[in-house]
Amino acid sequence: MPSELQPRCAACAARGMALCGGLSEAELAALHHIGRRRRLSAGQTFGWIGDPASSCANLVSGVLKVSREEADGSAQIVGLLYPGDFVGTLFAERSADTIAALSDADLCVYPRLALEEILARHPAAGRLLLRRTLATLGEVRRWMPMLARARAEARVAALLLDMARRYEPDAGEVFRLPLSRGAMAEALGLAVETVSRHMTAFQQDGLIALSGLRGVRLLDRTRLALIAD
User: Fold this and answer.
1) Residues 6+ apart with CB under 8 A from 90
2) Per-residue pLDDT tens over the stretch 202-214
3) Do the beta carbons of residue 150 and residue 157 sit within 8 Å?
4) Average pLDDT rounded to a whole number, residues 79-91
5) Residues 153, 101: one domain?
6) Range of the domain at 61
7) Inter-axis angle of helices 25-34 and 123-141, nearest 10
C-alpha cells in the first residue's frame, strides 16, 4: 500500500465493512492506486440516472439516498446507503439510479473501467465485490416495504430501527443518528414537523430517549417493531 495512503485507511471507520476489508495486500495496493477521496455535502449528487456510469465508490461516512424517477416525473427514494455500502453500478454504461447525499458524506471513489480491470485481474476481489454488492442491494430492497407503510409513525419507527441495525449500538447505548430530522423527513416522504412529533411521542411513551440534537437510545425495540409492522 502506498505510504501516503496508510493514515487515511488506518482511520477509516468503514474499512472492515467495505470492499477493501477483505482484500489481499496486492489487491489493496491495486485498489488504492486508482482510488481518491471525495466529499459530498448534504444535497450534493454523486450521479444522475441515465448519466454515463464513470465512477463507483465505497461509502466511508454519511448516508446517501438512491432515487428513481416515477412515470409521472416525480422522484421516489428507493433505498439508503450507509457506511461500508458499495455505491454505483459496475459493468453498465449508464447509471441505473440517482444517488445523492442526505447528510455530509465521505467516499473512496474509483473510475469504473479501472475498477473492472482490477476485478478481472483479481478474481477473489471480484467475488468479494459481488457479495458486497448483493448485500447492498438487499439493504436497498428493505426500503420499499418501509415506505409502503401508510402510517407516519410506522415509517419513523422503522427508520429508527433500520439506522440502529446498521450502526449496531450495544443494547441500551446512546448512538448518534446519522440523519437530521429534515433528512429523515425527506427519506420518509414526510414533513419534518411530523417526524419531530413522532420522535417526541416515542420519547414520552418510553420507547426511546433523546440526547441533544442527534443522540438517541432505543429503550423498547420490541414495541418499536410492533409499531413499524
Assistant:
1) 56, 112, 115, 116, 119, 129, 133
2) 999 999 999 988 8
3) no
4) 87
5) no
6) 3-141
7) 70
Phi-psi region of 172 (alpha: psi -120 to 50; beta: other; left: phi over 0): left
Return all residues near 28 (Cβ < 8 A) that are at least 6 apart. Answer: 1, 20
CA-wise closest residue to 20 among 143, 159, 99, 118: 118
Q: What is the mean pLDDT of residues 69-87?
A: 81
| Residue where a domain terminates, one of 141, 169, 192 | 141
Direct distance between the N- and C-terminal alpha carbons of the chain, in angstroms, rounded to an integer: 47
% of the chain beyond a pLDDT of 90:
43
Q: What is the CATH number of the domain that holds 94?
A: 2.60.120.10
pLDDT band at residue 5 using 50, 70 and 90 as cut-offs: very low
> b/e per residue, 101-137, with b = 16+ CB within 10 A?
bbbebbbbbbebebbeebbeebeebbebbeebbeebe
Which set of grid coordinates corresponds to residue 143?
426500503
- Residues 107/99, Cβ–Cβ less than 8 Å: no
Clarify whether residues 120 and 175 are in a common domain. Answer: no
Q: Read off the amino acid at residue 195.
A: V
Longest dimension (CA), the chain: 56
> Using an 8 Å Cβ cutoff, are 106 and 126 in contact?
no
Query: What one-letter code names the amino acid at 88?
Result: G
